[in-house]
Amino acid sequence: MKRTLSIASLMVLSFSVLMLVLTPAQAAPEPQSTPVNVGVIPVQSMGAFQWGIDSGVFERNGISVESVSVLPNPPLVLGALTAGEVQFAYMPLIPIINSYAKASAPLRIVAPGSGLASAKDLANAQTDASAATKIGHASVCANAASGVNSWSSLAGKKVGVVARGQQGEILIANAVKSAGGDPTSITWVEMPFAQVIPALQSGTIDAGFLDEPYSQQCSTSGFVNLGNPGVTFFTGTAVVGMWVTTASFLEENPEVVRKFQKSLYEVHQAVMTSTKKMAKAVIASTKITGATRANARSANPMYFPLRVTRVSIAGPVNKMIALGYLPSTIDIPNLLIPQYRP
Prior knowledge:
By secondary structure, the protein is of the alpha/beta class. It has helices spanning 7-22, 47-54, 57-60, 74-82, 93-101, 119-125, 129-132, 167-178, 193-202, 217-220, 247-252, 254-273, 275-284, 286-289, 293-298, 310-323, 332-335; strands spanning 34-40, 63-70, 88-92, 107-115, 139-142, 158-161, 187-190, 207-210, 224-225, 239-246.
């Protein structure tokens, strides 16, 4: 029997169809960002990372940076990472190598954090002393009244470093040895960057290792800037600081690590190809270092590699062995996870 619909029924049917068209059956939920906590040391090269947060790069890639713990030295950053207080950390390369070699922390290198310069500029700085003072942000500030005016003259002197057996000490020891001095005769004194200039003024130390925003205070305080000791250490490489996580976090959260890598790659690529974005990264660094904008702008240019290679680690490892700071080589392929490639 042929069935007919009333006008009222047709109106109800039409309205139902219209609602199906206008209202999705099941709207897909918006992807949620994964919250992470991060640990860093107060150096100007963290400006790119901070700009990545401010500009929304991390959020767009599904990473929500909930907190940034600014700690005075790498051992404290490492402690926060291994305790699970932070999931990612920026550390200089040498503390990473030391910690991995001693099995004190099951670290994995995620991405580059900072570098000295391009291979060409770095090679130039190794033969040109004036160029060496314009490479990177690390430097050694010395008191000429103590008889310190060269790398070799540091032998037998008191030298301030952030932590014993770490980046500053090893870079200086290598520079002194390369210049014909005896690094084993140096008396090392632990102190934060902020205390180096006052310690030089009081005569507590004869020289001290610095990073920006403190490096430029050397000459303005009447002392001698010996230059960047990393120039003779990181030969053929440019990566001096790296982002790390723990092996357990990587195993449990591979996609989160991948998103963090992708974010850093995009941040580094952006600031290295845009002077405007690099300028914003310079200003963003003041949120981490506490420096004035004027000091941040007057520092040496920042350099951000796109990935870490095995060579970036192998060269420093071999120098640490030669200097007696490392008993043997390390398993670099295990330490360095595959780097992000678009």
